[in-house]
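Please describe our next protein:
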Amino acid sequence: MKTYPSIGTKIDFSLSYHLFDKLDGSNIRAEWSPKQGFYKFGSRTQLLTPDQVPLYPSIDSFKAKYGEEMSSRFSKAKYERAVCFFEWAGPNSAFGSHTDPVDAMNPVLIDIAVYKNGLMPPEKFVDFTAGLEIPKLLHVGKISEELFQSIRNRTMPGMTFEGVIGKLKLIDKGSCEPIMFKIKSNDWLDKLKAICKGDEALFNRLK
């Protein structure tokens, strides 16, 4: 089962990107096939089992919200297999911790990987998921110093607390996976530092 790639912080400011709001939840993956539908679910590192609370309830929530529609779209596109990646988060989710009741949690589709093609480029992802909930698309184009600082200072319109994810704008019609990076807000980083209580190794791993 395909895992979600690790996202770095390196940015080529000469290129154009799609910037999406970064949701502070847990990354869950859901594998689909034409015969079985969505049949396999996992966290970032392992398959989900019933004892994994609060992540396991994300399965039913995802199926209820996206299952039928995504299955229809995958079948229409004649995909052999696909993996949906989504964030599982509630109003008080932060740094991988979830304290909200299950009925307050929400799955939000963040990426799709198609068998033999890899992750959809951002333009295709936005088009393919039209009408469904995905993270807010905040900006398309180059990243100026002013824009970068507005993300750091959390003044960029539409962004929430953590920051943004940038994906390389589709330049040609190839199927290569998009280049991605993250920009975290200073407020989020400061809060993480406080939680880590001077543990630099933990801070660097989580940031």
Q: What stands out?
A: Residues 25-134 form a domain with the D-amino Acid Aminotransferase; Chain A, domain 1 fold (CATH 3.30.470.30). The beta strands are 17-22, 26-33, 37-42, 82-89, 106-114, 118-119, 137-141, 163-168, 180-184. The mean pLDDT is 93. Helices lie at 58-76, 122-128, 145-152, 186-196, 200-206.
